[in-house]
Specification:
Layout (H helix, E strand, L loop, with lengths): L3 E5 L7 H4 L2 H7 L3 E4 L18 H13 L6 E5 L1 H9 L7 E5 L8 H10 L4 H5 L3 H7 L8 H7 L8 H7 L10 E7 L7 H11 L2 E5 L13 H10 L1
Helix pairs in contact: 3-4, 3-9
Amino acid sequence: MSETIVFVHGMCHGSWCWEEQFIPYFEKLGYNCITFNLPGHETEGSTRRISFSLGDYVQALRNEVENLDEPPIIIGHSMGGMILQNFLKTGCCKKAVLMSSVPPTGAFLTSLRVIFRYPGVIPYLLLRNLLGAFKKYPHLMFNTAALTSRYSHRMCAESFKAYLGLLLPISHTSSISILVVGGSKDALITVRELESTANHYKAKLTIIEGGSHDLMLEDDYEKSAQVIEKWI
């Protein structure tokens, strides 16, 4: 029986972010690949306001894992990485990959850094419009104009309630083998934050030189996919 990989998307994304490149890549290697939309993320490009907690998202991941016959490998991107970290408080998987993930210290310092560098996000935060902030500053996700044109319209509204949950740190560690992967040019998560995540979990760390936040959507996504392939 082939191993199963469950992919967890991040803020304002959906299952589509894995389906174009990462899932075909790993399916060719023989893995059974599963991705799903977090609650409220079912419609690409939706601007409809949603309100779910981070716990709701963790439960959605738990539901997917409980439907499987054996523990999977789980890959979580950005907010999906924090969802995965919270899942590991009580949940189990074979291996875990934190890609461009919110660190265990939470997103508070990350948010302050973004606000300081890009004060234009403040009106959107006051309106609880996270999608609007990312649309104004798409380079926080994508490192080229071509990627922005290709994918930014597919992003959807995010729950501000879930975002508030991301601000809180977590203190638990895990006995699960963990890989931390991130880009050196990520405008959201710094290399120092990636290092702190790896240190917290005593995990292997790989930095993709020149990589942006959305590593799985880049033209050279194979760099990240190959790192994960070799590790798992």
